[in-house]
UniProtKB/TrEMBL annotation:
PANTHER family: PROTEIN GRAVITROPIC IN THE LIGHT 1. This is DUF641 domain-containing protein. Residues 35-46 have a biased composition (Acidic residues). Residues 98-215 form the DUF641 domain. Residues 34-72, 209-231 are annotated as: Disordered. Residues 47-64 have a biased composition (Low complexity). GO terms for biological process: negative gravitropism; response to red or far red light. It holds the Pfam family DUF641. It comes from Digitaria exilis. Residues 415-463 form the GIL1/IRKI C-terminal domain.
């Protein structure tokens, strides 16, 4: 059988048929093959097949690449999910710890606030009936509870700064603002307490002065001057005690007015008396010393150096009788009533002069609010005010002592202990009351002493300090 000759066209047809009937390797499609044929050299029909097989051997298939990438993503996702779970667990534990800390702190805050309320209720209860000991204890309790709240506030701020508990809401009121009303009430109560304490001290001094006056009146019928018409040493001693009680009461009244006016008592007393005052108790003694020194200044002269009278030298006996008569007439008289009738009498001139020396203008304005008293006194009048009435009672007590001193024969000589002097119990008495130690000396004199004609002594009052120390 003769074979049909093979032409170039037949070969092209066979290759094309084979390509169309068989799937090309490496997932090549017909369109891919056609495109590659169009792009490559037309003279070499096998070039595409060879190059395609080479490419298949050099690079993986797209399915393999997708599968490998999927495996990597799964591995990364597993690691990421594990890290997120760990972080979530740690955050939950930390949040629980913060919540426990916050709950514990809030429980302490509520307990502290309850403590403040209880202490404040006790402070109110101590006002009625008035109990100074309970007041001091309740005051200390309120202060302690407020300090506890302040410590809790500081602890909260430190914890918030360290990140242990959430920071407070800026819109919420801080603890300081919550405690501020209690602090204001506490300050007001403290001022009221000081005012009441000064008032109590003043009432005690007035009670002592009234008791001394009553004892003096009870002593009058049995004294020799009632029957014989002459003053006695015993009467002088009694009047001296009354004068000291009156000056002490007026000093307490001055301190009460200073506290009521909001003046620093310690600093004001130090400035007024020139005594190094360091405490309210010492201020009380220093103010008494200032009042006594002002009212008794010039006591050795028959008219307190208000004029140049020398009646005691011209006719001593008549002068003594006149002084004793004035003493008896004035003893039962209110000083304001006397000055209302005779404002420019000897006692009126004495009171005006001593008021001016006792209270400088700046002190008068600080405690009384104005200078009306001074203007009235300088004009020859005597104000009818409670304050000036207290002053007149003290001035009258000293004036009565002065009248009686110049009615005695011989008149008593007065003496005063200087600063740093040795303590002599026969001539001095300590305001502390307790027996002084051997190393104590006079810090400042509070009241002069008197030596009477029969040898009796009215001892001087002194404030003692350690040797080399200051009041």
């Amino acid at each position: 059988m003769a074979s049909k000759p093979v032409t170039v066209g037949d070969l092209i047809h066979r290759v094309a048929s084979s390509c169309l009937s068989n799937r090309l390797p490496c997932n090549y499609t017909i369109r891919d093959s056609v495109d590659s044929d169009l792009d490559d050299d037309e003279d070499d029909p096998f070039a595409d097949a060879v190059s395609s097989s080479d490419k298949c051997r050099r690079s993986p298939s797209s399915a393999e690449v997708v599968e490998e990438e999927g495996d990597d993503d799964k591995k990364l996702k597993i690691w990421e999910e594990g890290g997120q779970e760990d972080r979530k667990a740690a955050a939950a534990a930390k949040g629980a710890e913060r919540a426990r800390d916050a709950e514990a702190l809030m429980a302490e805050v509520f307990d502290a606030v309850s403590g403040v309320r209880r202490a404040y209720a006790a402070l109110q209860g101590a006002h009625c009936p008035w109990d100074p000991d309970k007041m001091r204890a309740a005051d200390a309790a309120v202060v302690a509870e407020l300090r506890h709240l302040a410590r809790l506030r500081d602890r909260f701020r430190r914890s918030a700064a360290a990140g242990h508990i959430p920071r407070p809401n800026p819109s919420a009121p801080p603890l300081r603002e919550a405690v501020a009303p209690y602090e204001a009430v506490l300050d007001d109560l403290q001022r009221q307490l000081q005012s009441k304490q000064a008032e109590v001290d003043g009432l005690k001094e007035k009670l002592a002065a009234a008791t001394a006056r009553r004892n003096g009146r009870h002593h009058q019928p049995s004294s020799k001057h009632q029957s014989g018409g002459a003053p006695t040493v015993e009467l002088f001693t009694s009047i001296a005690e009354q004068a000291r009680a009156a000056t002490r009461a007026f000093a307490g009244h001055l301190l009460h007015l200073m506290r009521a006016a909001g003046v620093d008592v310690t600093a004001a007393t130090r400035s007024l008396t020139k005594i190094p005052v360091s405490s309210p108790q010492l201020a009380k003694h220093a103010m008494e010393a200032h009042v006594t020194r002002s009212l008794l200044g010039g006591f050795e002269h028959e008219s307190f150096y208000l004029d140049g009278s020398l009646s005691s030298l011209l006719d001593p006996a008549a002068f003594r009788r006149e002084r004793y008569t004035q003493f008896r007439d004035m003893r039962g008289m209110e000083p304001s009533e006397l000055l209302g009738v005779l404002p420019t009498c000897a006692f009126g001139r004495y009171a005006a002069a001593k008021f001016a020396s006792l209270l400088p203008p700046r002190v008068e304005e600080a405690i009384l609010g104005d200078g009306e008293h001074r203007r009235a006194v300088n004009g020859g009048a005597h104000p009818r005010t409670p304050f000036y009435g207290e002053f007149l009672r003290a001035a009258k007590a000293v004036w009565m002592l002065h009248l009686l001193a110049f009615a005695l024969e011989p008149p008593p000589s007065h003496f005063e202990a200087g600063r740093g002097a040795e303590f002599h119990p026969e001539y001095m008495e300590s305001v502390a009351g307790a027996p002084p130690r051997a190393d104590m000396v006079v810090g400042f004199a509070m009241a002069p002493g008197f030596r009477l004609g029969n040898g009796a002594v009215v001892r001087a009052r002194v404030y003692l300090v350690p040797r080399g120390g200051r009041p």
